[in-house]
Amino acid sequence: TEVFVGHQVLRISMANEAQVEKMRELETMDHLQLDFWASPSHPERPVDVRVPFTSLQAVKVFLEQNNIQYFILIKDLQRLVDDEKAQMVRQRSR
Amino acid sequence: ALSVETFNYATYHTLNEIYDFMDLLVAERPNLVSKIEIGYSTEGLPLNVLKFSTGGPNRPAIWIDTGIHSREWVTQATGVWFAKKIISDYGKDESLTAILDKMDIFLEIITNPDGFVFTHTQNRMWRKTRSINAGSSCRGVDPNRNWDAGFGGLGSSRNPCSETYHGPHANSEPEVKAIVDFVKQHGNIKAFISIHSYSQLLLYPYGYTKTPVPDQKELDSIATAAVTALSSLYGTSYRYGSIITTIYQASGGTIDWTYNQGIKYSFTFELRDAGRYGFMLPANQIIPTAQETWKALMVIMEHARDHPY
Q1: A4-34 in b/e burial notation, b at 16+ Cβ within 10 A?
Q2: Which of A68, A86, B220, B255 could form a disulfide with A63 if both were Cys (CB 3.0 to 4.6 A apart)?
């Protein structure tokens, strides 16, 4: 079973088309193993990206260097997955 | 669950639980609901569709599918709630009764069963199908890029490791091909609604080209009314418009193909986003999401009923 310990989901807001282009560039960086939950399209539409723990630093540096704003939507994805699973088990036993 | 009444609609369920629920529904309301198997997934799971019908051969029909992207769990959960809502409201709600007295409704709750099982057992983040890609260690095709409408164009990927991989050819995925065959064979589907989550959008064709559809004005006015109805319940705000102008270019998408087949009322939803969880929407959001979406669905279904073509 795939685990997501330390993975974060970042919500990234782009201010202009140039930043959208930067995000598209980030999307092509396969080595970072990013999972775009919502892909870059327009400046007014934020992008959500699941970032594995090992890529967190690189991604945050990339965003900060390009003055692209972000916040952490999900701090530890595995915790959310575990909570969801536990809730399903609880409901089933009820 | 012992009955559709005791089934818990406020939690997420496995594939088997949902398939059992479908059987319960058919057993309890055999005069209104039947189950059709339209094909099999890559891994051999049945592709089950619920048919809500009050009789009559080959009536005009409305198609609704939920969960073609397996990880968007609130979508399949919403589909389950819709099924219950249809049987509860028939004979009580005047408008839905009038729809079903004139048209059939087809509902495919688990459109990508292999992917759905995989999200429950191996990888909660899985979105695609589970087909094997020759020459690649990466599996799966994005079933919303696999339709024969601008197939392989911009807004889809040729890389099998990408989440938007379009597949080796249009309809390569049995989950897609089954719907294509069903729609063609039926020949009288008048509205096609494909439901995804998340990002709160109601979209109409096209996604693969900037050329507006000939029915853009009418589709836009339906979308306006649908979104107004949806927002009236909990104030959830939706954006709407054509796929390419509202989000981005996406080739090989479901409703572009259905529209090109002559199904004028082709729409796709992106359901609720609580703003904190993405598609990991907490289960306590299932029922409100389904309730508000139902309001928009009713607007589209009523329009299809009242504007035959």
Answers
A1: beebbbbbbebeeeebbebbeebbeeeebeb
A2: A68
Q: Please indicate if any CB of chain A lies within 8 Å of the CB of B278.
A: yes
Q: Which residues contact A28 (CB under 8 A, 6 or more apart)?
A: none
Q: Which of B121, B163, B199 sits opposite A36 (nearest CB)?
A: B163
Tens of pLDDT, residue by residue over B141-170, are 999 999 999 999 999 999 999 999 999 999
Average pLDDT over residues B88-97: 98
Pairing of strands B61-66, B189-197: parallel
Model ipTM?
0.96
Given this model, what pLDDT does residue B275 score?
86
Residues 181-240 of B with CB under 8 A from A: 199
Average pLDDT, chain B: 97
